[in-house]
Every structure is written in C-alpha cells, then in structure tokens.
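User: What would this chain look like folded?
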Amino acid sequence: MIGGDNSAFQKTKKIMQSYSKVLEYMGGSGQGQLTKISNQIVVFNITQGLLEGLHFANRYKIQRNKLVKVLLNGSAHSYQLSKHIKAILKKTYEKKKHHVVKEIGITLKNAKNKKLRLPCTEQIAKII
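Assistant: Here's the prediction, encoded as structure tokens.
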C-alpha cells in the first residue's frame, strides 16, 4: 500500500517488488497510510474477538488443541489465528502485550477528523 507521487512510484516499483509480497499504489500522498489504518481497524477487531473467544473457552475449560482445530477449520479462521497458533496452543497468546495503542490512537484521530464513529475500535481503545 503506497501513496504519493505516481511517477515516483512507477520509477521505484521494480525495486520495491523485489522485497514486497503485494505492491499496490493507493493514490496521492497519505492514501497508503489511510489504507494501513483501514487494515489496522480489521486487525484490532479480529484480535479482540480471538482474545475474547479464548478467554471464554478458558473459563469453560475447553481443550485448547481441540478448540484450535475447530477454529482453524471453521468460519473463525483468520490470519491472526494462523500466525499465532503456537502461542495460542501454549496459552501464552493471551498474556502477550498486543502493541496496538499507538495504532488505535492514530486510527481514532483520523476517524474524528472525518466525524466518523468506529464503535468497536472505540471500545477496544477503552479496554487496552
């Protein structure tokens, strides 16, 4: 996700493709950052849902390995679940500090600039 001058993007595109999985020009200056914020909103909410689901399962003593198998093969499957599978199985994922405070602040500031409400993200900001 890249924003800025399109001619500068075109001149450097081949270099960036050598180290990027996906390279997408999003528009003028700031559009790459706003795209990143949109991505972060989704990540915040998926992560919070995963943490709450694990918390619920812990309280009811659901076997973690069986839970993970179900989550990986059902509609709850996500990149966050797959990426953190080892920590989830060891029950250390819940104890990790999820470094989102800065990103949530940037997100909510940009939402406020457009008089946009993000109720789920606002709630996550209150509990972290």
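The chain is about 65% helix and 5% strand. If you want, I can go into more detail on any region.
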